[in-house]
Amino acid sequence: MDVSPLVWGVSLALAVAVLLVDVVVVGRRPHIPSTAECLRYLGVYVGLALAFAVVVWAVWGGEPAGEFVSGWLTEYSLSVDNLFVFLLIMSRFAVPRQYQQTALLIGIILALVFRGIFIAAGAAVIASFSWVFYLFGAFLVWTAVKVAREGVGEEEESAADYRPPALVRVVQRVLPTTDAYHGVRLTARVDGRRHVTPMLLVLVAIGATDLLFAFDSIPAVFGLTQEPYLVLMANVFALMGLRQLYFLLGGLLTRLRYLNIGLGVLLGFIGVKLVLQALHENSLPFLNGGEPVGWAPELPAWVSLAVIVVTLGVTAVTSIAASRRDERRAAAEVDAG
What we know:
By secondary structure, this protein is mostly helical. The protein is built from eleven helices and two strands; from the N terminus they run H-H-H-H-H-H-E-E-H-H-H-H-H. It has a two-stranded antiparallel sheet with strand order 1-2. Helix 2 crosses helix 9 (242-249). The chain is globular and about 70 Å long. It starts with a helix and ends with a helix.
């Protein structure tokens, strides 16, 4: 897949333009977006992602288009899990709802920066060391087990259970902090002394969370496509509309009780796919004499896309069905009492 510097430049410029529009809208009037506003923006962002997939298909063919859609869906599902942590952070620090948009937007900008750095580093490592796929695959399988176990046999995590990252605790110990929010300002003067506000702590917590999630998401999308351009655009489109999705889903995020299990299945599949690909292109001298392993298949993009769509669909349907079953059971107990 040959991507010219002009295409890179135009794509990045358009992404920055969309982001700037978001910044201007939020910066001009911090507010709680309505359901209609959230749906409108989400429709635009999803439409842009699908339109981009059509452009990729028309210019580079169906295989890269399938890889982009697979990467976009995977990053979107991982971003929903990210949203749940954001929800805990907002609740833990009691962020006023009208200021949550600003915090989320800055969090998205930080996520783009961190993922851009990881994508550049990942592409450079892959270009120099093809065996890194073994490491990526093993890491994703380990992460898949860890993520899936979080969704089995554990009670739902609440804001009271949330423990801020170590960096936040260091900031709290070192810098004086105000008790109240001062709009979206990060610092405020109290009794003639400069203090940081809780908003700064929120942004530090969100930034640390973004950094941790980048460790999972970037190897995952590189397992679906090794084209840095598609990896970057899948991340950009997945992060677009994340702010609106947060307000649209709200409490519904807690109803996706099997999300972690679904994400575990996805990450596990991609991890195995990476290992198989590494075996298919093997160059390690101590494994099969440095020759590719013949029995290891190379899975096409449509297989990955089918697994992702089916897994996400089953996760959503079973989660909603379980939530409705519990609601009916609770209602029956109330009636019986």
